[in-house]
């Protein structure tokens, strides 16, 4: 079939709205009509050309929501008409990783997904007979996409797709990092570096966990209002304090944060986030994705004296099992998505969404089809 898509022909180039060819779903695959997709920092990272897994031409997008149009051979868990959120972290429920009970990083289709291919090693998208690569197994910047059955979470049909698409990445990542990875307990003091969609969702998760002090940190003062709206008790701009941010957080928390979260992708901040944690037990969770080749460092004595460094991908959430519950919590008013959507625009205007992100004007832009 012919479908409209925003194609990234090469690194650093604006996306181009094209009519491309899309083959139907093969065994274990599903054709999804994408209704809406958030634009995330990670799409921009890959588009910039610095992502080591970045491959072009490609149809980006990994924060979408849509409706099943057709299922391929052997698909049993979904049918035409089901509402779904594509998952860049699949959940096969049979691989060593899924069965471990220790991680959400299903590896069933990892190898092909990382190469921009469907599990059989080919692409469904093409233009003039030349393949166009998939992105993160989702490619949600297309009005139709083909996704593996194990990469789709079936959700409540009453949920507005132009809002719950944010649960396909940013919001789930932030809330999940608090509830699943850190397991923040009531009254714990939290420091959060970076108030983009991820950091604000960490703040939201910390409020859900009934954390004590929730300290938002950003170099952009315009982020304070939103941070407080989501539950921050304090806002710190590191450029406007005397002394170091580490000393500042340690003072504010009477010895250090019980948990800190790095939501920027900056290795200097990762070190600060670890070192502002409380001696003996403080845990720092890295969520931000640093540029290729970057390394983190600290004095090992920081770990010897009880601080813990951890990372979190998609908030440790197993998508097919847990994401429907996140959608329900949104429907019950327990998760705020609406305030994170700064702009909604037709796919034709997707390059504006990247501009707003780079200019710091948006938390999330959502493109619709
Ligand atoms: P964003 O660009 O919207 O937000 C980043 C925020 O950090 C901005 O508010 C900016 O002002 C602030 N910031 C920049 N430099 C700073 C500094 N030196 N000190 C304090 N604040 C600073 O990004 P986002 O969409 O929220 O994503 C954040 C990071 O999370 C990215 O690296 C993204 O790739 C990553 N990410 C990780 C996962 C995961 O599963 N681990 C999932 C999605 C996104
Ligand atoms: O299983 O090796 C693997 C890769 C899992 C991908 C996790 C990606 C999380 C960070 C990227 C941000 C995505 C939007
Ligand atoms: Zn698996």
UniProtKB/TrEMBL annotation:
Cofactor(s) the protein needs: Zn(2+)
Pfam families reported for this sequence: ADH_N, ADH_zinc_N
InterPro entries: ADH-like_C (IPR013149), ADH-like_N (IPR013154), ADH_3 (IPR014183), ADH_Zn_CS (IPR002328), GroES-like_sf (IPR011032), NAD(P)-bd_dom_sf (IPR036291)
The Alcohol dehydrogenase-like N-terminal domain, residue ranges: 27-156
Keywords from the UniProt entry: Metal-binding, NAD, Oxidoreductase, Zinc
Recorded superkingdom: Bacteria
Class of this enzyme: oxidoreductase
Catalytic reaction annotation: a secondary alcohol + NAD(+) = a ketone + NADH + H(+); a primary alcohol + NAD(+) = an aldehyde + NADH + H(+); S-(hydroxymethyl)glutathione + NADP(+) = S-formylglutathione + NADPH + H(+); S-(hydroxymethyl)glutathione + NAD(+) = S-formylglutathione + NADH + H(+)
Enzyme Commission number(s) of this protein: 1.1.1.284
Family matches, as Gene3D superfamilies: Medium-chain alcohol dehydrogenases, catalytic domain, NAD(P)-binding Rossmann-like Domain
Coiled coil spans: none
PROSITE patterns reported in the protein's UniProt record: ADH_ZINC
Metal-binding among keywords: yes
Alcohol dehydrogenase-like C-terminal domain span: 197-323
Keyword Nucleus: no
Family: Belongs to the zinc-containing alcohol dehydrogenase family. Class-III subfamily.
Family annotation (PANTHER family): ALCOHOL DEHYDROGENASE, ALCOHOL DEHYDROGENASE CLASS-3
Protein name: S-(hydroxymethyl)glutathione dehydrogenase
Species the sequence originates in: Bacteriovorax antarcticus
């Amino acid at each position: 079939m012919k479908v409209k898509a925003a194609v990234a022909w090469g690194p650093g180039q604006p996306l181009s709205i094209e009519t491309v060819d899309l083959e139907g779903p093969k065994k274990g695959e599903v054709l999804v009509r994408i209704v809406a997709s958030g634009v995330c920092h990670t799409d921009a990272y890959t588009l910039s050309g610095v992502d080591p897994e970045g491959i072009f031409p490609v149809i980006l997008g990994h924060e979408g929501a849509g409706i099943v149009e057709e299922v391929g051979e052997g698909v049993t868990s979904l049918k035409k008409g089901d509402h779904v959120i594509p998952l860049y972290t699949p959940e096969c429920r049979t691989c060593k990783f899924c069965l471990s009970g220790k991680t959400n990083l299903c590896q069933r289709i990892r190898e092909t997904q990382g190469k921009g291919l469907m599990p059989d090693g080919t692409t469904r998208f093409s233009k003039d007979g030349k393949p166009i690569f998939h992105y993160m197994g989702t490619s949600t910047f297309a009005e139709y996409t083909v996704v593996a059955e194990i990469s789709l979470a079936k959700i409540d049909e009453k949920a507005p797709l132009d809002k719950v698409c944010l649960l396909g990445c940013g919001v789930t990542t932030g809330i999940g990092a608090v509830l699943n990875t850190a397991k923040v307990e009531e009254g714990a003091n939290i420091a959060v570096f970076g108030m983009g969609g991820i950091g604000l969702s960490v703040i939201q998760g910390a409020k859900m966990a009934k954390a004590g002090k929730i300290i938002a940190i950003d170099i952009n003062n315009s982020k304070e209002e939103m941070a407080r709206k989501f539950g921050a008790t304090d806002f710190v701009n590191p450029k406007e304090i005397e002394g170091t941010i580490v000393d500042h957080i340690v003072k504010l928390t009477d010895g250090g944060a019980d948990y800190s979260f790095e939501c920027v992708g900056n290795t200097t901040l990762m070190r600060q986030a670890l070192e502002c944690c409380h001696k003996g037990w403080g845990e720092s969770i890295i969520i931000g994705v640093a540029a290729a080749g970057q390394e983190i460092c600290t004095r090992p004595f920081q770990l010897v004296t009880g601080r813990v460094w951890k990372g979190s991908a998609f908030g440790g959430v197993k998508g097919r099992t847990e994401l429907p519950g996140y959608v329900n919590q949104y429907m019950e008013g327990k998760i705020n998505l609406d305030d994170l959507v700064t702009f909604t625009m037709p796919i034709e205007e997707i390059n504006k969404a990247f501009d707003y992100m780079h200019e710091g004007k948006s938390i999330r832009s959502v493109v619709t089809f």
